[in-house]
Amino acid sequence: MSPLKTAVRRLSVAVLTLGLLGVSGEAAPAETLGTQLTAMSATGLKLSECQTRMQTLGTMLSKAGYVSRRAHLGADAVMTALWYHPQRHTTVVAFSGWQASDNAFSAAEIAGQVGWNEFLPLP
Predict the structure, then answer these.
(1) Which of 45, 51, 62, 98 is most buried, with most CB under 10 Å away?
(2) Contacts with 80 (C-beta within 8 Å, 6 or more apart), sequence order
(3) How far apart are CA 42 and CA 39, in angstroms?
(4) Quick one: three-class SS letters along 29-66?
(5) Residues 70-109, buried b or exposed e (16+ Cβ, 10 A)?
(6) What is the pLDDT of residue 6?
(7) pLDDT of the residue at 13
């Protein structure tokens, strides 16, 4: 068999396999997203670093099919943001310090839909 026919056959098998597995070019696999969220978490950050991480996270999640739910800057200088993926039924929650320096940034993916009221303090 010629090298060209072998290459075409292998490529066809690879494309068929990916199609059967349901791989999509739009959304990042859950394992990759979890790894990226963990890698973004840090402490001792300046405000500009937190702003950049929040913007990067928003762009990354938007490309992966997440919809921004809400962002809120609390009186404690902590930015809280929520994104939801309707097909995966998962929520990404991010917390970021919003002071001049010494901030922490953390984000996590949570199964299900997380409501904004779950972050309100109890009396």
Answers:
(1) 45
(2) 71, 72, 74, 93, 94, 95, 119
(3) 8
(4) CHHHHHHHHHHHCEEEECHHHHHHHHHHHHHHHHHCCC
(5) eeeeeeeeebbbbbbbeeeebbbbbbbbeeeeebebbbeb
(6) 36
(7) 38
